[in-house]
TrEMBL record:
Recorded name of the encoding gene: 100637026
UniProt protein name: Sulfotransferase domain-containing protein
Keywords attached to this entry: Transferase
Entry similarity comment: Belongs to the sulfotransferase 1 family.
Annotated Sulfotransferase domain residues: 75-311
A Pfam match: Sulfotransfer_1
MF terms in GO: sulfotransferase activity
Organism field: Amphimedon queenslandica (Sponge)
Amino acid sequence: MVPRDVKESFKTHSPDGKKTPTRDWTLKLFDFHERNKGQDDKPITGEYIDGVLLPTLIKPGDVVALRQELKLRETDVFVATFPKCGTTWTQQIVKLIWSGGREDGRDVDEALPWIDVTKPHELDDMPSPRGFKTHLPYHLCPGGDPRQSPAKYIYVYRNPKDTMVSNYHFSVKFLPEDMPWSNYYKMMLSGDVYFGNIFDHMRGWYIHKDLPNVLIISYEMLKKDSFNMIKKISDFLGYQLQDDVIADITKLTSFEKMRGNELANNSWMDKYRREGAGFMRKGVIGDWKSLFSEEESIEIDEIIKEKLSDIGLVFDYDP
């Protein structure tokens, strides 16, 4: 079981002393895996919906309820990603755009909670503008099909090789301690990881890039041209911010600034992870080379040609 001091840590990292839905669920998840370690022959457990593996404790019925019952508003904003593609980074950018480039005292997961682990009625009293993060694929998006939605959606993708390596390091808490990279790599290819096949996920969102309420950008774009990408996000959300405010947000959302900001770095989670597996690890382009074999790299290139070349989705692997 998770010790009392771990449970109490939520209070020290939430400005008003309340557990956010994200942290409440994460606590339960760590507790579940601690109690069930070694009791299941599957390295990653969960239920499936439409062929997509859901994280432990999220039920297919929860996803259906969010899709069918959530009432969206014109001011709602979704940050949608496959895990480890710059989700928290983009959440923090949106939060600072809302506040005009100044911290407002809210944790990023309080300002834009993880909607996938909440219930529709829990969001009714949330003041506008509401922001949410989701890792669900397009066809399972909370609130229904974005084509018929009043909300706005920012989808951030990342080159698949870096995404896979980042997910491997992030997931070690939930994996057998001796699981080698090669095994996890095969799980990623088969889609036997949370939120399903990475290529299907990216395709599902990218083909809707021309919708007026959908903005699609890449992690690499944010990394290499932060100022202009943040300005693009700001304009998309309807905030005509001055360049000096955009510059402030750019500085505040740099990797080093965010890593030192307890309102944005999810450092409360690091104590539950094995050494070297912190939430914010490197934030670089090209780390895939540390684990990928030449054969694996070539295989990914071939899969991309097969699954994504027809929609024009290309990736940046250069630092």
